[in-house]
């Protein structure tokens, strides 16, 4: 109930007023059945603007920090994310990554839409970074299509550190579903997971038009390199045969 009120009465209309979203390719989102919507991640606002325009409910895997913040603000944030059905995930890797995949698979096995950001964290500079293979593991284990999605403009509207968004018109693009049935049974093969992930990132890149950096976003943030040095790593995701 809270999700419906938030989407159609409170937050949804406000987001449409502030961002005036252009929506392209919404017909690619299936009207029923399980699927993964994999998108770029530029802003905190991404959690809300894309789900607000998709007719079906989208459940996101959200970082656990949103559920463990201190004080009144932390409790309100946690209550909000739980209220809209988001699932906390630990991003520390290893066993935590396996738990996150299990949580995503539970959503898909109920025939629902799962939203995920393959980069694993927000882009700190507006560029697109290398995708983590968890999205591929879920797609192959569940046998579901992946719908690539690009949100354009939210970085300008609300970059990291900005509390209130600017009134910037955004664009939300959905691509045709990606079918990875040819990789069935290879969910434990790293080469297959990497190929599937790179195909997903290539589709997102095609939709978003961002610069691509062949580096994980967390590594780029940790290194804190000047922009010209990072340019040396610019490339595009490896394009598998079916995308040639």
From TrEMBL:
<dbReference type="Pfam" id="PF01553">
    <property type="entry name" value="Acyltransferase"/>
</dbReference>
<feature type="domain" description="Phospholipid/glycerol acyltransferase">
    <location>
        <begin position="35"/>
        <end position="154"/>
    </location>
</feature>
<dbReference type="InterPro" id="IPR002123">
    <property type="entry name" value="Plipid/glycerol_acylTrfase"/>
</dbReference>
<feature type="region of interest" description="Disordered">
    <location>
        <begin position="220"/>
        <end position="244"/>
    </location>
</feature>
<dbReference type="GO" id="GO:0016746">
    <property type="term" value="F:acyltransferase activity"/>
</dbReference>
<protein>
    <submittedName>
        <fullName>1-acyl-sn-glycerol-3-phosphate acyltransferase</fullName>
    </submittedName>
</protein>
<keyword id="KW-0808">Transferase</keyword>
<keyword id="KW-0012">Acyltransferase</keyword>
